[in-house]
Amino acid sequence: MALVFLTTGLFKLTGQPLSIATFDAVGLGQWFRYLTGAIEVAGAILVLVPRFSVFGAILLFCVSVGAFVAAITMLHIDFIHTIVLAVITGYLIYAQRQQLPFISR
């Protein structure tokens, strides 16, 4: 998961033409592309650090849900990959739920 989100995050941050076009279609501006890319890179790094892995998974889950919403409402593109990523990151959150401070032990 970390490799997937690190790659897509860097894709956004380096201003690849497809990424620019996608975020133009979303209509929130290129600042949102930078924000999303930064969140993906940060989440990918956090997933690799055992102490913060669950928080990285939460960030990546939120990105996946946002991508799903954008895919079905604004972009009208294939959304299956966003569901797969959300399910996998959701499982990571579930598997590490005891690390969350608001979960009673």
Gyration radius (Cα, Å) is: 14 Å
Number of domains: 1
Largest sheet: none
User: What class do helices, strands and sheet pairing give?
Assistant: mainly alpha
Helix proportion: over 70%
Tell the overall outline.
globular
Strand content: under 5%
Order of helices and strands: HHHHH
Task: Give the N-terminus to C-terminus distance in angstroms.
Answer: 27 Å
How many alpha or pi helices? Answer: 5
User: What's the count of strands?
Assistant: 0
Poorly predicted runs of 5 or more residues: none
Assembly type of the chains comes to single chain
**Mean pLDDT, all residues:** 94
Describe the structure in your own words:
It is a single chain. With 105 residues, the protein is mostly helical. It has one domain (2-99). The chain is built from five helices and no strands.
Question: Any key phrases for this structure?
Answer:
105 residues, 75% helix, globular, 5 helices, 0% strand, mainly alpha
Topology (SSEs and partners):
Elements: H1 2-13, H2 17-26, H3 30-47, H4 53-75, H5 80-95
Helix pairs in contact: 1-3, 3-4, 4-5
Short description:
This protein is an all-alpha fold and 105 residues long. 75% of the residues lie in helices and 0% in strands.
